[in-house]
Sequence to fold (720 residues):
Amino acid sequence: MPALAFASSFWETYDVLDKQVKAGVRKAMAKFQQLSIAQLNADKGLHLETVENARDPRMRTIRVTQFWRGVVLAPDDGSDTFLLLSVVPHDEAYGWAAKRLYTVNTATRALEVRNVVAIEQLTPSLEEASAQVPTRLFARHSDTVLRDLGIDDQVLRAARAITDTAQLDAFGGVLPEDQFEVLQFLAEGFSPEEVYRDVVAVRRPAEVPAEAGTEDSLEMAIRNTTSRITLVTGPDELADILDKPFAAWRVFLHPSQRRVAYRPSYSGPAQVSGGPGTGKTVVALHRVKHLLSRSPDSRILLTTFTNALADMLRENLALLLDHDETRLARVHVTTVDAFANRIVRDSTGRAQNPITDIDERQLWRRISRRLGLPWGDQFLAQEFRHVILAQNITSEQDYLRAARRGRGSALRSAQRRQLWRAVEEFRTDLRSEGKTTHLQICAHAADLLGGAEPGPHHYDHAVVDEAQDLHPVQWRVVRAAVAEGPDDLFITGDPHQRIYDSRVSLRALGVPVVGRSSRLRINYRSTAEILSWSVGVLADTNVEDLGGDGDDTLIGYRSLLRGTRPVVGGYASEQDEITALVEHVQAWLRQGVRADEIAVCTRFNVLLDKVRDRLAAEGIPAVKVKDRPGAHVDGVRLASMHAMKGLEFRCVAVVGVTAGAVPFTRDVTPVEVDSVAHASDLLKERCLLFVACTRARERLVVSWSGESSPFLSSVTGGDR
Ligand SMILES: Nc1ncnc2c1ncn2[C@@H]1O[C@H](COP(=O)(O)OP(=O)(O)OP(=O)(O)O)[C@@H](O)[C@H]1O
Fold:
């Protein structure tokens, strides 16, 4: 019987088909598993038909319903795997099929598709246009180098005419996938050796001899293309895959994602970084799946930053593990704070009572006044957080000797004594009220875990998502929960999304990742237009890497999706701004976007409440993300910029991006108080805006009233 495989282009169309057409697809596909090739060719219902004038002679159409056709690649080399490429309305099927050509990449050995007609038509005009331009994008690479990286004759001719990256990007949609990625990496300035390692070698099957030709059968090439093609082996698997909503991230990992998620073992902590939307969370989930498969009884701690994200991780892990309760029971999905809370509660028998950040600042204010200190609440709170808790300082002696990394103002011994007094008062006041802070709970939990024999709160592995914002004390909790050894910690994070200013040196915390770090570069979430605009908000700012050992970079970070440019604009008044926002939301809803696929976010809750009231007045339901509405709850999602961390929506409006709100002056240490803290507070606020904007998949609106945020000057050309 023939085998059946599905290309990613099929899934892009299948999910949105109506029920009747989907039923037609299921019926047609079942035949492929029941009939012999001769019977398939003769089957009247299926009507397997050659496409006239197709550039790929293996193109066939099949009948799905009266008005819909499936497009299939049929083997002509004696192998028997059919590849379903797409389901298209009858009238469009032949045009769709005729111009596409599937070939085997000489370097990666994977099956690629190109729009051969478009390349033939575009290349001469490209050559003509670039005749006047003296430089060529790939001039410094010889034909041999390009061919060794899998570039074939047709693509080589086109590549030779390309003068800049904008042209390459515009051409990208019609080029074969692996070859386009090679060209993109070269265009970014990566060396051919790096491109071979990161693009070619990760795809190329290990057993192919270096000098092998490209005479692989279609079946072999399909097997080599795991990042774009799924092979189905039996009827159960077929029914399963066609019945469930398809989530590409579960099946089609990019080779760079697969390599890090399914590497059999790491000798110690491993770290994966990458810009927003590059699939770090996806990789973390696949790593959990891999670790579970390696032992029948290992237990895994999977942490993230907020409760909303923990809910989402739990749901997605269940999907990835096919709701297998036995394996799910071996994974504890939580936030580090909730985990620490549970440890302390289990040990003391008392529920902990952490105060909010606002209450903490008030307490510092009271103590500062009481002791007549020269420092404000912000300075004291930061000293406590970034120096005392970060280094686990418990005595005045230790504080007098401590290095105050990341603090820009020197403190003499007498000043430190004065400050230590405030710290003691802070602790005493809290204790007398039966209260504590989140970080103090973590410190307590880390001590409890560190001193205990392996027990229910110890795990074999920890997988840490959103790692960039963990405070050193939270790292100590994670570190103490897992014994040091191979595969102990798997860490994913993005330093450009650091919004709580917790810079750490992982090495100093017993989490050495040198030699076990990788980077993801392809954004799967946002369109290139949204991405490049949002990266502009960062304005070339230097950002320290996750381990605190150097700077991180977004070189090579890109999206393959195309869409419309963000809509960015200012209004005379807040009221006008909200009116415009409501109009955007109404337009999106009219275009068929569901309310829960839309998010509105602001720096402050006050504005968010005004937005909610206006939406309600227009009859548009809205719910706050922090109330953790389930996926089934209707309504536009409303969130503060902080609560947007890790989430994504088809359409996002970031409103109230004014000079007074972003950055929020009260959260920025005055430069005269501490210049280093001032700079890092500003960076944190800039990253916050970056995080908010990079939540958008298809549409992004950014607005303000009055004077715009200074962070927008790099993307609006200073036009306010
Ligand atoms: N290989 C893949 N194929 C298809 N979709 C993918 C793939 N990898 C990731 N995605 C999708 O891209 C989006 C972003 O993924 P994910 O949330 O894992 O990124 P992230 O790097 O953790 O993002 P952020 O740092 O912004 O929170 C999600 O919708 C995810 O399903």
